[in-house]
Structures are given as structure tokens and as C-alpha cells.
Amino acid sequence: RNFKSSMECRWDIDRLNAPFLAIYESLIPPEEEKAKQKQLLTLLEKLVSKEWPEARLYLYGSCASSFGVCKSDIDVCLAMDADIDKSKVILKLADILESDKLQDVQALTRARVPIVKLMDPATGISCDICINNVLAVVNTKLLRDYAQIDVRLRQLAFIVKHWAKSRGVNETYQGTLSSYAYVLMCIHFLQQRRPAILPCLQEMEATYVVTVDNIECAFFDEVEKLSDFGSRNRETIAQLVWAFFHYWAYCHDYTNTVISVRTGSLLSKRTKDWTRRIGNDRHLICIEDPFDISHDLGRVVDKFSIKVLREEFERAAEIMQYNANPCVTLFEPYIA
Ligand code: GTP
Ligand code: MG
Question: I need a labelling partner for 289 at 20 to 30 A (CA). Which of 5, 203, 262, 299 fits?
């Protein structure tokens, strides 16, 4: 492990820049897909406003954070009076949408986050609608703002998400991590490079402040002023992909530390009281949510899936170090 944690990057790493950039480019959604998403949102707004004229619809998740690859589903939040009964609204909403031009409308009232699922045959886009999940709208803005600072974040996150989907480790119901968790891992990683590639927006003077569910969300959001923040660091995308997997394979202290985008640093599990299993939360890999700081995005990971995840990080790190053709092998589908 010591040998590996000090291992030097392969000499020909920059040979991989062009193929990684080609993968990144191929994952960017085309403009017409963005237009179709807007078209679906407009249709939904029309249908919803008949029943709830005061309510508003927001896009959140990867389609709004700029971390969405092509052909992703869209996430929509219906924001309305806080006192409503969510299950009732979900059922009513499903009812309204069912009777119009949409397909496969399903109300999932018993999920952790109750949602309505649907598919729009006109655009072919699938969509999840949740109620009053305003914190998700705010953390989507934080992610989007980080993405504007340095293009290497979006490049790295696309490659990591593509790897995670290919390898079957982007499935929260199977105990692996959400896309949101992987993006936070990428942001944290780039905050930690020396020189840093990303700043810590929540530690800077706040220019954006909102209070949501009693949580004050405050950060610097004039990111156009930070467009050359990372320019002193000249690391290339291939070097960063190598270093990202190397870090999670050999260098991260899973036993004692929590990654925290909020502070731009590592925290100790002890100070968060995340040292043991509480209920179903095992804290085997700890990723602090930037606003809901009692929330560990790694809580879904159990003693079986932590092994799967770490083996996948090690596999990726070895491929990046030794394989003749990493851009193919890295993304080989995992077949159980
Ligand atoms: P893809 O759909 O895989 O492209 O990415 P996504 O960013 O839309 O993924 P995901 O479904 O993981 O998350 C959707 C949004 O939900 C995130 O951007 C967050 O704003 C919000 N969110 C907040 N807390 C959580 C959480 O604990 N788990 C997940 N999955 N999402 C959360
Ligand atoms: Mg999504």
C-alpha cells in the first residue's frame, strides 16, 4: 500500500488526453435534446398551473447542473405551499398527467422521496417529479456554479460517471453511489489538488443566501470572476483521471475521514459521530452533503458493496497505470 500510494504516474499518460476528451465530447447532450427538455417542462407547467396556479416547477439534478450526459432522464421539482400532504399531491398530480398526452405515469408515494414518474412520447424523455425538494434545487445550483469555474471538473465528472455506469457501481439500491455522490467526489478532489483547481465556494464571502428547510445555504456565486482560478495548475484530464482513481484506490483513509465540499477539506469521522453503524447508516465511505451536513451520501454503502466499490477503484487505478488501452478497458461493461 505504501508503495502504491507513492506510485508515480506512467510516463506516457498524456497520450490518453485525446481519447478521454473524445469520450467527454461524445457524452455532451446535443442542443436539440436541451430544447426537447424545455418543451416537456413547458407542457408540465401548463398542466400543473390549472390545478395549482401558485405552484412553480424547477429543473434540478444533472439536466440542470450541467453534469447530465446525453439521453438522461430529467428531474423536476414542484414547489408549492409547505403544509400540503405530499402523498395526496403526488396522487393528484399523477391523475392530472395521466389524463393528458403522457405515458407510463406512475405515482411512487412510498419511496424515500415520493415522486411521479412519466414518459413523454413526443420527445422520448422520461421524467421524475418530486414535491418541495427545494434543497436539491439549491445543491444543483452549487454544482452548476462549480462546473463553470474550470472545464476539467465537467470532463472528469463525465468520465467518472460513465465509468461508474459501465461498471455497475452507480446503483444506490444495490449499495453503490449516486451520480450526485460521484460529482461531489470530483469537486472535492479538484479542491484538494496543489495548486487547487477549484476553490471552496461555501468558505468565500456569500453572494447567494437562501434558507431552505431551516438550513441556511450560503456561498459565493459570482463564478464568472473565478474563470482563471485553476490556471496555475496545468494538470491534464488524463493525469486527473489517473490521480482520481489512484486516490480512491490507495490513498483515501476510509476508516477515519469524511470528504467535505462545504469546507474544501477532509473532516474526521469522529467529529461528525460517523464512526459506527446507526440504524441502516454504516458510514463505510463518508461524503458529506454540502448543505444537509448530517446527511452522508455514502450511507447506502454496506459491507458487501464497499468491497465491490474499492475493488472497482483499484481495477481502474491499475488500468490507468499499466493497461495499453485504458480508454477501452476502463469502461468495459461489468457482467455479473
Ligand atoms: P444522472 O441522472 O445519473 O445523470 O445524475 P443526477 O445528478 O440527476 O443524479 P441523481 O439522481 O443522483 O441526483 C439528482 C439530484 O438529487 C442531485 O443533483 C441532488 O440535487 C439531489 N439529491 C440530494 N440528496 C440526494 C441523495 O441523497 N441522493 C441522490 N441520489 N440525490 C440527491
Ligand atoms: Mg437525474
Answer: 5
